[in-house]
Amino acid sequence: MNQEKIGKFIARVRKEKNMTQQELANKLNITDRAISHWENGRSMPDAGIMLELCKLLDINVNELLSAKKIIKESYNEHAEENLLEMRREIESQNKKILILNRIITFLGFIIYVLVVLAAIFIEIPMIIRNIIIVLALVMLLLFGVFNLKNLQKTGYYECQDCKHQYIPTFSQMFFGVSGITKGGTWKMKCPNCNKKCWHKKVLTKINEK
Ligand SMILES: [Zn+2]
């Protein structure tokens, strides 16, 4: 932040608005000496007065602090860049959640198989064996619900028929069909076109409506 540059910028914009230092000072309820101090780069307008100053000069704080007017086009470009950056962040975050989800589900399945095998092959009373197998099954179901819940909450599903993107409900997912070989697809009823078809996982919403 260059105080001197900002001072010169304030002076320039003030003159463009055909205001004297005294007139600007009156509007801000401060002395014209303060204005002169800013414009000579000796001090900065404090935060409390900055917004009011910007309003009077018809600039935004961003422009004041960078000591230049930002043309609308590059401003929009900037906003778009930020939006893209945000989208990339959400996308990579969702990707991580989905990968972690797959790993946890896979581990759950492995543990289930190991526990059941152990229960079958180790010499233990039948009743304990049955209890272990049932508990393992319950655990597997819990892993399944956890997996489905994460899948449902992460990102969106896109209807392959009408391209509608939405977050399905848990029961929609539960009664749908998982496309295991189709990489993250799910067969369910689309709330937009009511067709039962394959839905593709999308990490961020593309066509905002
Ligand atoms: Zn649809």
Put the structure in a nutshell.
With 209 residues, this protein is an alpha+beta fold.
Explain this structure.
This protein has 209 residues and is of the alpha+beta class. It has three domains: 3-66, 434 Repressor (Amino-terminal Domain); 71-153; 155-209, no CATH class. It is built from eight helices and five strands, in the order H-H-H-H-H-H-H-E-E-H-E-E-E. The chain has helices at residues 3-16, 21-28, 32-39, 47-57, 61-66, 72-121, 126-153, 170-174, and strands spanning 156-159, 165-166, 177-179, 185-189, 196-202. The longest helix is centred in the middle third of the chain and has 50 residues, at 72-121. The protein is elongated, with a radius of gyration of 31 Å. The two termini are 40 Å apart. The mean pLDDT is 87. The structure holds zinc ion (ZN). Residues 159, 161-162, 164, 190, 192-193, 195 line the site of zinc ion.
Number of strands: 5
Oligomeric state of shown chains:
single chain
Query: Poorly predicted ranges (pLDDT <50, ≥5 residues)?
Result: none
Strand order of the largest sheet: 2-1-5-4-3
Helix content: 55-70%
Write the layout of secondary structure elements.
Elements: H1 3-16, H2 21-28, H3 32-39, H4 47-57, H5 61-66, H6 72-121, H7 126-153, E1 156-159, E2 165-166, H8 170-174, E3 177-179, E4 185-189, E5 196-202
Antiparallel strand pairs: 1-2, 1-5, 3-4, 4-5
The site of zinc ion has 8 residues, from loops.
Which characteristics define this entry?
alpha+beta, binds zinc ion, 209 residues, 8 helices, 434 Repressor (Amino-terminal Domain), five-stranded antiparallel sheet, 3 domains, single chain, 5 strands, elongated
